[in-house]
């Protein structure tokens, strides 16, 4: 990997494209280096994972609405599949990316990568797969595109923090999806360069979507970025250009939205970011640094859910608890903890999207139930239980510098996203335990492997898919490297006739 400095340059400097980050990203996308077998296997795992969480969410209102919008853009020739819909119906690929991206994101249960910025890199799969289906590409083409999408989003997330400027993380997804589509299609570097810049320019949105009363837009946001990436590539394939240099320009993203604006007196001086990218001929292996979720909740809660399961075994009476203190990282404390200062995170009438960003609620329910379910654990009746509300309001988070350090560690063996929990009882005794990574994490007690991904798929789709369709999909996904051009439609998963809810009418 090579570090690439990113700073603001005045327009009169005429920064050569060879020195621009978007050009360097496009070089990675167009480098046809071989994809390792372990990377191919992990891509198969994440395709199975995406399908699992998408089908589990298939009849939730945001997914139904997104599907209804997509079906308003039917396209028989050059169309892509929509999750749940039978193979005879295809839609324009950007709308398939929209519908499928929303389905994948709705339950907040697919993969994650956390560094300077956090991300869900499997959000790259819906737009890249939609274009692959529409353009009748092969399994190997799809693998190349997905490996690239993961590489770019994870590399950007390693270097450029968006949330400190209240920018939503989809600002890294637009460029990564555009790069992945470019790699999939074997486009020239010039075209990918322009598409990356367009995709970034159009996907700068702000973190209010994950603050206060969190709405269904949390699921739509990455789908929106994927859709815009497809449209950006389409325009640039037709010869259109983009605002440039999009990262380094005088009025660019870095200059006015990210760290560049913090030092306007010397705006052209310091280097703000060092972005790692593979060198020419270096394999794209970033997907192996990401990790999926066993539980349907914000990733920072994964280890704490597992810890709650463990600690409850040592507690005879939960009503005897006086207070629960969660000592954790800056990010966990300020985003899903009491440091966010969001009263909605303590409200039993809050939306599901808000509850899955409340570690206070999540820890209380996990401690009481000893299980976590993507539907039952968020049910309004469950959230409103008197004993739950009492316990919930006893939970407080505190930032611990050591957990913050571990959260940002560059040592994969030290990297941690959990915390130390101190439970104080009315009789003056206390119970203390800690867990750094979730059981399903690569360094956890039970790292996820292919059988776990298949188990997750079968569990989440039980009662929704026919056994025959579930088995067909699993077999097809595992055969991905051998799928020929035009066969990628088989990666769709269809519900039995009558199994899909219909959307309320809209414009489309």
From TrEMBL:
InterPro entries in the record: MmgE/PrpD_sf, MmgE/PrpD_sf_1, MmgE/PrpD_sf_2, MmgE_PrpD, MmgE_PrpD_C, MmgE_PrpD_N
Domain MmgE/PrpD C-terminal: 295-480
Gene3D superfamilies, sorted: 2-methylcitrate dehydratase PrpD
GO molecular function, one term: lyase activity
Occurrences of domain MmgE/PrpD N-terminal (ranges): 19-263
Pfam families: MmgE_PrpD_C (PF19305), MmgE_PrpD_N (PF03972)
Family: Belongs to the PrpD family.
Protein name: MmgE/PrpD family protein
Native source organism of the sequence: Neoroseomonas soli
């Amino acid at each position: 990997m090579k570090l690439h400095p990113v700073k603001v340059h005045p327009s009169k400097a005429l920064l050569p494209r060879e020195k621009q980050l978007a050009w360097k990203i496009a070089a990675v996308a167009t480098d046809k280096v071989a994809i390792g077998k372990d990377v191919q296997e992990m891509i198969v795992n994440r395709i199975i994972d995406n399908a699992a969480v998408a089908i589990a969410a298939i009849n939730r209102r945001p997914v139904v609405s997104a599907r209804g919008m997509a079906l308003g853009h039917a396209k028989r020739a050059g169309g892509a599949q929509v999750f749940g819909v039978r193979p005879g119906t295809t839609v324009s690929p950007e709308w398939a990316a929209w519908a499928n991206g929303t389905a994948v994101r709705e339950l907040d249960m697919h993969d994650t990568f956390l560094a300077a910025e956090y991300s869900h890199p499997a959000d790259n799969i819906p737009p890249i797969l939609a274009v692959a289906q529409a353009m009748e590409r092969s399994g190997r083409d799809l693998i190349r595109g997905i490996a690239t999408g993961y590489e770019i989003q994870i590399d950007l997330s390693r270097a450029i923090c968006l949330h400190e400027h209240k920018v939503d993380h989809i600002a890294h997804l637009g460029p990564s999806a555009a790069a992945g589509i470019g790699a999939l299609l074997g486009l020239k570097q010039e075209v990918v360069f322009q598409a990356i810049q367009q995709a970034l320019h159009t996907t700068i949105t702000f973190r209010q979507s994950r603050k206060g009363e969190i709405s269904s837009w949390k699921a739509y946001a990455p789908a929106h970025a994927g859709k815009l990436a497809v449209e950006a590539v389409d325009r640039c394939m037709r010869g259109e250009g983009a605002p440039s240099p999009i990262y380094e320009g005088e009025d660019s993203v870095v200059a006015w939205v990210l760290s560049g604006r913090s030092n306007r007196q010397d705006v052209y001086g310091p280097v703000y970011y060092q972005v790692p990218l593979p060198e020419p001929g270096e394999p794209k292996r970033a997907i192996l640094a990401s990790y999926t979720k066993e539980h349907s909740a914000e990733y920072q809660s994964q280890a704490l859910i597992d810890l709650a399961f463990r600690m409850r075994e040592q507690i005879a009476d939960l009503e005897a608890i006086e207070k629960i203190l969660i000592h954790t990282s800056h990010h966990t404390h300020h985003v899903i903890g009491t440091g966010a200062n969001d009263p909605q995170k303590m409200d039993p009438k809050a939306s599901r999207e808000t509850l899955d960003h409340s570690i206070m609620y999540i820890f209380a329910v996990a401690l009481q139930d000893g299980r976590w379910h993507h539907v039952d654990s968020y049910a309004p009746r469950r959230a409103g239980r008197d004993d739950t509300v009492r316990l919930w309001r006893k939970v407080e988070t505190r930032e611990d510098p050591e957990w913050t350090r571990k959260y940002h560690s560059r040592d994969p063996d030290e990297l941690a996203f959990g915390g130390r929990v101190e439970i104080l009882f009315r009789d003056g005794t206390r119970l203390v335990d800690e867990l750094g990574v979730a059981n399903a994490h690569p360094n956890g007690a039970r790292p996820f492997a292919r059988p776990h991904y298949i188990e997750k798929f079968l569990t989440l789709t039980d009662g929704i898919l026919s056994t025959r369709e579930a088995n067909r999909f699993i077999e097809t996904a595992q055969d991905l490297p051998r799928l020929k051009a035009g066969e990628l439609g088989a990666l769709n998963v269809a519900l039995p006739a009558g199994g899909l809810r219909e959307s309320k009418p809209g414009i489309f």
